[in-house]
Amino acid sequence: MQIQLTNAGLKTRDQWRVRGVNLTVEAGKIVTLIGPNGAGKSTTVKLALGLEKPTEGLCQRAPGLRIGYVPQKLAIDWTMPITVARFMNLYGGIKASQAQGALDAVGLHDQGKAALASLSGGEFQRVLIARAIARRPNLLVLDEPAQGIDITGESQIYQLIQNLRDELGCGVLMISHDLHLVMAATDTVVCLNGHVCCHGTPTAVANNQAYQALFGADAAQQLAVYDHHHDHHHLPDGEICKDHSHG
Amino acid sequence: MDDFILRALAAGLLLTLMTGPLGCFIVWRRLSYFGDTLAHAALLGVALSLLTGLASQLTVFGVSAGIALLLSELERRKEYSSDALLGLMSHSALALGVVVIALLGPSQINLESLLFGDLLLVTQADLWTIGGASLATLAVLALSWRGLVAATLSPELAAAEGLRPRLTQLILTLLIAMVIAVAIKLVGALLITAMLILPATLARGLSKSPEQMALIATMAGMISVVLGIAGSWFADTPTGPSIVIAALGLFIVSRLRGERA
User: Fold this and answer.
1) What was the pLDDT predicted at A217?
2) Looking at the structure, do residues A111 and A154 belong to the same domain, yes or no?
3) Do A237 and A172 lie in a common domain?
4) Which residues of B touch A (CB under 8 A)?
5) How far is B200 from chain A (nearest CA, A)?
6) Which of B5, B57, B179, B209 could serve as B18's disulfide partner, Cβ 3.0–4.6 Å?
7) What is the CATH classification number for the domain harbouring A193?
8) Global pTM value
9) ipTM exceeding cut-off 0.85 for this assembly
10) Taking CB atoms and an 8 Å limit, are A79 and B154 in contact across chains?
11) Distance spanning both ends of chain B, measured CA to CA
């Protein structure tokens, strides 16, 4: 167990942002949080990271976790001059080759010397991911990692996360709306809507009535499709996606 | 050249060792109004020093640090915007300071020297204080530099990845309170923020890394001090404001060169 939330909830200004969350992240496993806007996904991630203290319930983190975090929004203040390379090595101790390797992995080969402020939104998002993985984390926490990234980049990013899990054996806790891209690699889906509406393997969640009520039959089919795809991985990714969503 | 000019020069140069890097953090964290608030509160600190007989640097530091901690606590509760809180604290502390000074009697203190400082009245003892404060500031900055920069860039990221951004914020706050406490006598309550902001803003346009920006800000501060003191010597103008004008002049020159390049 790397992170465990037990009946965790957070209340701000007399309002529960999320409540009754049970969640376990283990090394080498990918846990994906899904749910509509305002369901408490980011709040759950913040509880898991210890950025917020739970109003009720428990949050336990294994000692010695080396966390790589990709937040949903990062308000970088452009009043600070800083290059991509310096940002990659924010706390020191990252070798230049390690940083370059991570930048290569997200497709930003020669941006090391670029000013962080000069990057586009999608490039900045890639740098955030590169920075998190350059730390060689044993737990990777990503809040909508593919936001602002172009379509070809998206699947690369998810592939990268999967490879990293395989290579480092790190646990992954991720929020994503790209169900069709993440489900194949996901071990556990947690569907949130102010509370945990259901959780389990992608197939189990897709067949769950609470999930279907929340997202509609279409979305359920999407999950099922990708779990199915997972069982028959001889077909290319994109095609399957198109066949079923249009058909 | 007279001794007092040399002392003024030494005091000003030592001061820029603090205002250079700390000014960068104030610019990065958008704390200029915060610096102003602490400087206004410093007046209350001076009044307390008159009242209690303690050294003014001590009481000013106490009041500034106290106000800073109160502010960060109130901001955390999020009942009022930090802008409104700063305005409230800033002017209340200023008013309170002026009233207390007035109540102490007419000849106790020269309000003008409090507001604008007087670099030419620096004593040998002041020099030691400033030197010590500069050394302490540089030591703390050197030891916690990476953490301070990381927590400034993104407190959330730093906290998630195992740093303690609230602690670093506390360190910065106390350092800023300290620089105000030692600087109030030199450049005054109204101008200390300018000494923090102007060189750092100038440096922003010329640097590629946080470290470089701190270095350039310090050097720009030093040049401003030298030019300002020289100007005030030859034109017989008040020293503090002359230094600020020199810093402004440098800033404008750097912009003009930047535009042309």
Assistant:
1) 67
2) no
3) yes
4) 27-30, 146-147, 149-150, 152-154, 156-157, 159-163, 204, 207-210, 212-213
5) 10
6) B179
7) 3.40.50.300
8) 0.85
9) no
10) no
11) 39
Residue of A3, A72, A78, A90 best to disrupt the B interface, most CBs of B under 10 A: A90
Q: Does residue B110 have a pLDDT over 50?
A: yes
Q: Name every chain A residue with its beta carbon within 8 A of the beta carbon of B77.
A: none
Distance of CA A148 to the CA centre of its chain: 14
Give the count of Cβ contacts less than 8 A between chain A and B: 69
A199 to chain B nearest CA, in Å? 25
Best of B78, B149, B153, B196 to substitute, by most chain A Cβ atoms within 10 angstroms, is B153
Is A77's CB within 8 Å of B161's CB? no
Sheet holding A171-175, edge to edge: A67-70, A139-143, A171-175, A30-34, A188-192, A196-200
The token duo for A73 is 């929004």
Residue B231: its pLDDT value, please?
93
Residue reference for tokens 């920075």? A131
B161: closest chain A residue by CA? A67
Structure tokens given for A135: 């730390």
Confidence tier at B108 by pLDDT (50, 70, 90): low
CATH value of B3-190 in 3.40.50.970, 3.20.20.70, 1.10.1060.10, 1.10.3470.10: 1.10.3470.10
| Element of type H or E holding A242 | helix A237-246
pLDDT digits (tens, 9 = 90+) for B31-41: 888 888 888 88
The residue-averaged pLDDT of A128-154 equals 89
Domain boundaries, chain B: 3-190
Chain A positions touching B161 (Cβ under 8 A) are: 67-69, 91, 135
Give me A24's structure tokens.
Answer: 């376990």
Between strands A188-192 and A15-25, the pairing is unpaired
- Rounded to an integer, the average pLDDT of A165-175 is 90
Evaluate whether A224 touches A232 at the Cβ level (below 8 Å): no
